[in-house]
UniProtKB/TrEMBL annotation, chain A:
<keyword id="KW-0762">Sugar transport</keyword>
<dbReference type="GO" id="GO:0005886">
    <property type="term" value="C:plasma membrane"/>
</dbReference>
<comment type="similarity">
    <text>Belongs to the binding-protein-dependent transport system permease family.</text>
</comment>
<dbReference type="InterPro" id="IPR051393">
    <property type="entry name" value="ABC_transporter_permease"/>
</dbReference>
<keyword id="KW-0472">Membrane</keyword>
<dbReference type="GO" id="GO:0055085">
    <property type="term" value="P:transmembrane transport"/>
</dbReference>
<keyword id="KW-1003">Cell membrane</keyword>
<dbReference type="InterPro" id="IPR035906">
    <property type="entry name" value="MetI-like_sf"/>
</dbReference>
<protein>
    <submittedName>
        <fullName>Multiple sugar transport system permease protein</fullName>
    </submittedName>
</protein>
From TrEMBL, chain B:
<keyword id="KW-0813">Transport</keyword>
<keyword id="KW-0449">Lipoprotein</keyword>
<keyword id="KW-0472">Membrane</keyword>
<dbReference type="InterPro" id="IPR006059">
    <property type="entry name" value="SBP"/>
</dbReference>
<protein>
    <submittedName>
        <fullName>Multiple sugar transport system substrate-binding protein</fullName>
    </submittedName>
</protein>
<keyword id="KW-0762">Sugar transport</keyword>
<keyword id="KW-0564">Palmitate</keyword>
<keyword id="KW-0732">Signal</keyword>
<dbReference type="Pfam" id="PF01547">
    <property type="entry name" value="SBP_bac_1"/>
</dbReference>
Length: 307, 430
């Protein structure tokens, strides 16, 4: 009996033992900082008198006042709307191009596949700040070779750093940098489709177009969902490109995107508490949007399977 | 870590070993030398500190380049919360109230008594915040001046403006003769310059009255400055694009822009921004609001402060005093760091005898600079200068882009700054 119980007990402990390192790391470097940010967002600094010298500043409970302040701040809402417009340009364009390139690379007739794949992927290896600096150079009329060429041809030279064109300028950097990565994800999924499927399709008389449209795209749908998921999150957190381009133009404010507002609050204005509250709001919205989308995509897949 | 830092560290280690070896001769040999940490970003600071360490074996200073400017302020405040702030730190003038408000800086008025006379009153007032306390010692300063392309001014028959009215006339005259060129630009990406121009006009953005802060960013003096630049931008006789961009560098380098209102450190910036124009520029006093006066504002400049976490405040203050008033230290700072010293005596010292290389055509560059610096107007900073500066970027950026209402932008700046203070519990009067 005793032997039997021991044999039962031991394997039950083992999984937890194996989980321990991951759990510990998760708690230390993920749960704890998030919890601390949540805690900070419920506090605020209160100043007495001139606020100079010792004891003039104290940290007190703020309740949800940081949240109500952030949510009623038109600056944050304006930033969110700008990011929405930006996202409406970036996400469809980037994923559309990624899918197109992946399908083209996957087609049998293509040559120089390895080189092309690398060439499209390479911009992803350029850090976001560097990419924005490079593009910033190309956008400034007086130093841009693009404007120089247009001028030489006698064509009008658009100002890419103000008005609606600014969205195009910013989106362009994201699309240039992100298409390669998404293409690789989709391309990898395409290569994993068994050859028999194509063989069967060809036997049934499918054209290349029909194969792409009816077989390839539906079969890589999970990776399209995945890349969409990543792209939405990246878009909501856009920070590098507008921050880097900001000094070049009067049209980009220091609170252009919600993330920039968090940075301004926490590290420029020195109010870590309202910065934390805004960050939590952005995290909740990101979470709701992305998991809402995943559930939607999941439900759709299940429906199709049941059909 | 570069070789210099290694050398300093090695020197620190060796000297403490040496001191421990011959212990017993001095009174507090058991505790060894005082070791101070100094967070600073001024280039060449290691060399200057090495001079001190050689001469003062019982007070050893180690320089650490943690960050610069506002980033260092944020880092130090965080470190101070954890009780780990360095003994000494470099801080810009406008950051001092923020640091004092966060209880980072020690009052060293007892330790540095008598240092006041070494500095211009306008600078000294910025390290006392107008109180009896002394929170830092001035290190370098940035009096504003007028830089212009001497060759092009001659070519187009322009006169060097001595008043702001003449400045506007010069801008108009240039636009008329050379429509493709502009005198200068109004840049909304650095509030420091605008603050300096407002100081010249007599602005006092933050002052204290009893237990209350008076915020007067939209006062008459600043309004005058805003209207002046807004008028020129609206008229189209000056540009509205930000400075420090590749486009701005290009405009200066090709002579598309002929002038720059800047501080004494401008030669360094021009050397990299407009390398092809060496020897073609000249420096003159900043145009005045009233003819015949000699008033200027400041743009930039920093101080050396002792923190509340300093283990030995006397030793730290002694080092700060030496660094910012001793002729040998200041000469080394000028040579190694290229700074413009805040101490009045050093402004005519041997290290500044020669004009900067870029201004070789103007041998009396630093003589003129010292005369201009004498008229440095006081500046009054508040506990949320960063908020005001960030609002400046956004509000004036928008106003410059639309060539619109600068006075409205100024009101926005005032509102945001005062509201931020009220929100944190400050008593604010406007």
């Amino acid at each position: 009996m005793r032997k039997h119980r021991a044999a039962h007990g031991a394997p039950r402990r083992a999984p937890y033992l194996f989980l321990l390192p991951a759990g510990l790391l998760f708690a230390l470097f993920f749960a704890l900082p998030i919890g601390y940010a949540g805690y900070l967002s419920l506090r605020k600094i209160e100043v007495k008198g001139l606020g100079l010298g010792s004891g003039a500043r104290s940290e007190v409970w703020a309740g949800f006042s940081n949240y109500t302040d952030a949510l009623t701040d038109p600056v944050l809402l304006d930033g969110a709307l700008r990011v929405l417009v930006y996202g409406l340009i970036v996400v469809p364009l980037m994923l559309g191009l990624a899918l197109l390139f992946a399908l083209m690379l996957d087609s049998d007739r293509v040559r120089g596949r390895a080189f092309t794949r690398l060439a499209i992927f390479l911009p992803y290896a350029v850090p976001g700040v560097i990419a924005a600096l490079l593009w910033g150079f190309l956008y400034l009329p007086s130093v841009s070779p693009l404007h120089y060429t247009l001028d030489a041809l006698g064509l009008p030279q658009p100002d890419l750093l103000s008005g609606g064109a600014l969205y195009v300028a910013l989106s362009n950097i994201a699309v240039w940098g992100g298409t390669g990565f998404n293409m690789i994800v989709i391309y990898t999924a395409l290569r994993a489709i068994p050859a028999e499927v194509y063989e069967a399709a060809r036997l049934d008389g499918c054209s290349q177009w029909q194969i792409a449209w009816r077989i390839k795209i539906p079969m890589v749908a999970p990776s399209l969902v995945l890349t969409f998921f990543f792209s939405v999150i990246a878009t909501l957190q856009v920070f590098n490109e507008p921050t880097t381009l900001r000094p070049l133009t009067n049209s980009l404010s220091t609170t252009w995107s919600p993330m920039m507002k968090v940075y301004q609050d926490a590290f420029v204005a020195g109010d870590i508490h309202s910065g934390a509250a805004t960050a939590v709001i952005i995290a909740v919205v990101t979470f709701a949007l992305s998991f809402g989308f995943l559930r939607l995509a999941g439900a759709r897949t299940r429906r199709e399977e049941n059909r | 870590m570069n070789h210099r830092t290694v050398a300093v560290l090695a020197a620190t280690v060796f000297s403490s070993v040496a001191l421990a070896g011959c212990g017993g001769s001095s009174d507090d040999s058991s505790s060894g030398p005082v070791n101070l940490t100094y967070w600073a970003w001024a280039p060449g600071m290691d060399e200057v500190v090495a001079l001190w360490n050689d001469a003062n074996p019982d007070i050893q200073v180690t320089v650490k380049k943690q960050a610069s400017g506002d980033d260092l302020v944020t880092k130090t405040i965080t470190a101070a919360k954890a009780g780990n702030a360095p003994d000494l730190m470099q801080a810009e003038y406008q950051a001092l109230p923020t640091l004092v408000s966060n209880d980072v800086l020690a009052d060293i008025s007892d330790q540095v008594a008598g240092a006041e006379d070494a500095f211009a009153p306008g600078l000294w007032q910025q390290v006392t915040l107008g109180t009896d306390a002394v929170y830092a010692l001035p290190q370098d300063s940035g009096p504003l001046m007028f830089y212009y392309r001497a060759d092009l001014f001659e070519e187009y028959g322009l006169t060097v403006p001595t008043t702001w009215d003449e400045f506007a006339d010069t801008a108009r005259a240039l636009k008329e003769t050379e429509p493709g060129k502009v005198l200068t630009t109004f840049s909304a990406n650095d509030a420091g310059l605008f603050a300096g121009l407002a100081q010249q006009a007599g602005a006092q953005w933050w002052t204290t009255e009893g237990e209350q802060w008076k915020v007067a960013i939209d006062d008459e003096a600043t309004g005058r400055v805003a209207d002046f630049w807004g008028g020129l931008v609206a008229e189209g006789v000056i540009d509205n694009q930000p400075m420090y961009t590749p486009a701005w560098n290009n405009a200066l380098n090709t002579g598309e822009q002929l002038a720059w209102v800047s501080a004494v450190w401008a030669p360094g910036t021009l050397t990299t921004a407009a390398p092809d124009t060496a020897g073609k520029w000249a420096m003159a006093p900043l145009p005045q609001w009233n003819a015949g006066e000699n008033v200027t504002g400041s743009w930039g400049g920093s101080t050396t402060a002792v923190t509340n976490d300093a283990r030995d405040k006397d030793a730290a203050a002694a080092f700060a005093t030496w660094l910012n008033t001793d002729p040998e230290a200041l000469t080394a700072l000028v040579r190694a760091g290229g700074i413009y010293p805040a101490a009045t005596a050093a402004q005519s010292g041997e290290a500044l005898a020669e004009a900067p290389e870029f201004f070789a055509n103007q041998p009396d560059f630093y003589v003129t600079a010292a005369e201009i610096a004498e008229g440095t107007a006081p500046a009054a900073w508040g506990p949320n200068t960063n908020v005001a500066y960030a609002t400046f970027n956004d509000a004036f950026g928008e106003a410059a882009r639309t060539r619109g209402d600068f006075r409205a932008a100024l009101t926005t700046m005032q509102r945001a700054t005062a509201d931020d203070m009220t929100g944190h519990g400050f008593q604010v009067i406007e």
